[in-house]
Amino acid sequence: MNFLSLIEAKREGRKISPGDLADAVRQFTDQKIPDYQMAALLMAIFFRGLDAGETRALTLAMRDSGEVLKFPADPRPLVDKHSTGGVGDKVSLPLAPLLACLGFRVPMISGRGLGITGGTLDKLESIPGFTTQLAPDHIVAQVQQIGVALAGQTATMVPADRALYALRDVTGTVPSIPLITASILSKKLAENLDALVMDVKFGGAAFMQTREQARELASSITSLARECGVNTRALLTDMNTPLGRTAGHWLEVREAVVCLENRGPADLQTLVVECAAHLLVETKKSPNLAAARQHALACLASGAPRRKWDELLVAQGADLAAFQKKLALDHTAPEVVELTTGDRAGFVSRCDARTIGEVVRDLGGGRLTKDTVIDLDVGVDQIAKPGEVVASGSTLCRIHARSSEEADAAGQRLAAAFDLSPEPFAPPPLVVEVI
Ligand code: URA
Fold first, then answer.
1. 278 is catalytic
2. Where in the chain is the domain with CATH 3.40.1030.10?
3. What is the Å distance from ligand 1's center to 42 Cα?
4. For residue 183, which atom of ligand 1 is closest to its CA?
5. Each residue of 109-168: pLDDT tens digit?
6. Residue of 187, 233, 254, 308 marked catalytic
7. Model pLDDT for residues 225-269, shown as the tens digit of each residue
8. From the CB of 180, is ligand 1 less than 6 Å away?
9. CATH 1.20.970.10 residue window(s) in the chain
10. Cβ of residue 183 lying under 6 Å from some atom of ligand 1
């Protein structure tokens, strides 16, 4: 394979053969192709796209660049959920133990946050002692034993995605539907799943700004995943408003625990239950969505997923006593400042996820580069959500910061994230479509 001719072919909008794409991935992973040439190919793909056959070839080559998890035969289906990323999106944390209690095996391989979108691994690392670095054998053994593992991509799983994503991130080639499809599905196919539920977010704080773009990405992922033998559904969900009432790593873990105790905010609980319900139907464990929702809600209310959470924490090295002690604290950041409505009152009609995500990132809770060391204690909680009524002097949110100066600066920016209306306001639906 002559790599230059691949770049030229794609630049001119021609197809690349599956064999050449597989070679390109193999040679890049083996460090035989320099970054500048792969960056040029990625940019050509960004502008010219890949058709379904090319996307499939790229995805499978990326999956096969490393180890694939191998599970023993077991009646419990292997399932996972993946979100394209948002602000306050802590769904994976309560969902994983809930799915284990519903009789699934959940080898959940998660990622880190970048920019304003939070990552599950970073959130988990705010738990004292919890380790997210598990070897593939360990993931398989733990999933067989307790039904669930929450881990990072290992050094040996899908190395091609790690290298390609790092390059895409610094060359402006992330928001490409075939490249996102290949990146997400190569990792999910390496888990050897029976079923997958995708949460494809659209809106101001999502990769996909519009519902149409989200639908296109969802169709690309679901059709390829099904072709590869993974029953997949995608939920298109609104990411103009943060999910739940918290954004920031430790604050989100606390909210996830509240959700597991069946006291979670309505939008978070709805999305957790919807993801579980679609997997129950997709794996034929429930006859229809209504029955599946009831089953998931009853399981959540039983307290079993909250106990499974503790079991998961212990299995991955957490200090449970230190975790409980931390949970009991009102805050762990040095400063907490309330942002109030002042003398205004009315109905919250906007709570802007992008502004909140940017503020949390700038408080120290997000990365601008892959090497940024993040602060796991900063963030925003008690967020007032669209549709809620607020009196004068009510809390719009609380800011958890490293200093009062940073909290005050954040407060000034956050004031612009909220609009109040004198009229009742009906928030838009969270899940707008299923693909
Ligand atoms: N998440 C991924 O894992 N890959 C992408 O390319 C985008 C979001």
1. no
2. 79-325
3. 14
4. 4
5. 988 876 788 789 999 999 999 999 999 999 999 999 999 999 998 888 999 998 998 899
6. 187
7. 999 999 999 999 999 999 999 999 999 999 999 999 999 999 999
8. yes
9. 3-49
10. yes
Q: How far is the CA of 84 from the centre of ligand 1 (A)?
A: 7
370 pLDDT higher than 90: no
pLDDT value at residue 117: 80
Probe ligand 1: pick from 165, 202, 220, 221, max atoms within 8 Å of CB? 165
Q: What is the pLDDT of residue 211?
A: 96
Q: What is the 3-state secondary structure (H, E, C) of the chain?
A: CCHHHHHHHHHCCCCCCHHHHHHHHHHHHCCCCCHHHHHHHHHHHHHHCCCHHHHHHHHHHHHCCCCCCCCCCCCCCEEEEEECCCCCCCCHHHHHHHHHHCCCEEEEEECCCECCECCHHHHHCCCCCCCCCCCHHHHHHHHHHHCEEEEECCCCCCHHHHHHHHHHHCCCCCCCHHHHHHHHHHHHHCCCCCEEEEEEEECCCCCECCHHHHHHHHHHHHHHHHHCCCEEEEEEEECCCCCCCCECHHHHHHHHHHHHCCCCCHHHHHHHHHHHHHHHHHCCCCCCHHHHHHHHHHHHHHCHHHHHHHHHHHHCCCCHHHHHHHHCCCCCCCEEEEEECCCCCEEEEEECHHHHHHHHHHHHHCCCCCCCCCCCCCEEECCCCCCCEECCCCEEEEEEECCHHHHHHHHHHHHCCEEEECCCCCCCCCEEEEC
CATH assignment of 335-421, given 2.40.160.20, 3.90.1170.30, 1.20.1540.10, 3.40.50.150? 3.90.1170.30
Please give the distance, rounded to the nearest whole angstrom, from the Cα atom of residue 207 to the centre of ligand 1: 9
Domain 79-325 CATH (choose: 3.40.50.720, 3.40.640.10, 3.40.367.20, 3.40.1030.10): 3.40.1030.10
Active site residue 306: no
pLDDT per position as a tens digit, 153-197: 888 899 999 899 889 988 889 889 999 999 999 999 999 999 999
Q: Is residue 5 among the annotated active site residues?
A: no
Whether 82 is a known active-site residue: answer yes
The arithmetic mean of pLDDT across residues 40-65, rounded, is: 97
Q: Catalytic annotation on 183?
A: yes
From the candidates 176, 183, 186, 220, give the one annotated as an active-site residue.
183
Options 3.40.50.1970, 3.30.70.120, 1.20.970.10, 1.20.1560.10; which CATH number does 3-49 get? 1.20.970.10
Any ligand 1 atom below 6 A from CB of 184: yes
